[in-house]
Amino acid sequence: MASGLTGSASEAAETVRQRLRDSIEATRRLLDSECVEQVADVAERIVAALRAGHKVLFFGNGGSSMDAGHLAAEMLGRFHYDRPPLPAVSLPDATAALTAIGNDYSYDDVFARQLRALALPGDVAVGLTTSGNSGNVLRAVQAARELGVLTVVLTGATGGKVAELADVCIRVATEDTPRVQEACMHLGHTICEIVERRMYPRD
Q1: How close are the terminal C-alpha atoms of the chain, in Å?
Q2: Residue 186: count of CB within 10 angstroms of its CB
Q3: What is the DSSP letter of 7?
């Protein structure tokens, strides 16, 4: 059997290599951006909120909705090691509420209305939006700020409209949607790691 790839298999392998290069480059750019200090600051502010008895609420659409659930699960379960659960909510996971609000009111209200019911002053709301222009994320950030909730958004290079609304807008240095999502999850994982270590340091 020949060891090399030919034809479409070779082209596919090159696509894999190129996407890995793209992802590496997007991540490399983070090292030289303000994201480093922003992520460290957000992690410390989440720690302060949790120690004061507050919670973190995550939200986003599509792939970002799954990322919101993923990050909430890292806090509710465990990240690197066993420890008590950390209070976190993924708003997109509330399927019945999401569809009821979208049907009875507007899809732009699906996160804002949940926040008005669940969020308290001192909580932290974390939105994920690759474009920074998702209507329901914008409305959620506005609602959270009215409620006295710290608003953090993970988004692409331009920041979109949400950049002017959020207390902290973490912009990754690319507008390529898959690379934005990958980079945001990298930063989200890092926040979870820092929070876990600060909340429950290991001996």
Answers
A1: 53
A2: 16
A3: H
Instruction: Tell me the C-alpha to C-alpha distance, in Å, between residue 155 and each of 15, 50, 103, 158, 169.
Output: 25, 24, 27, 8, 7
Can you name the residues that pair with 88 across neighbouring β-strands? Answer: 56
CA–CA distance, 158 with 113 (Å, rounded to integer)? 27
**Total residues found in the chain within this entry:** 203
pLDDT digit string (tens) for 24-55? 998 888 888 899 999 999 999 999 999 999 99
Residue type for position 195: V
- The phi, psi pair for 3, rounded to 5°, reads -85, -20
Q: What is the value of pTM for the model shown?
A: 0.92
Tell me the two tokens of residue 48: 């302060």
The token pair at 139 is 């409305």
Angle 160-165-167 (CA atoms, 0-180°, nearest 5)? 115
CATH class of 7-199: alpha beta
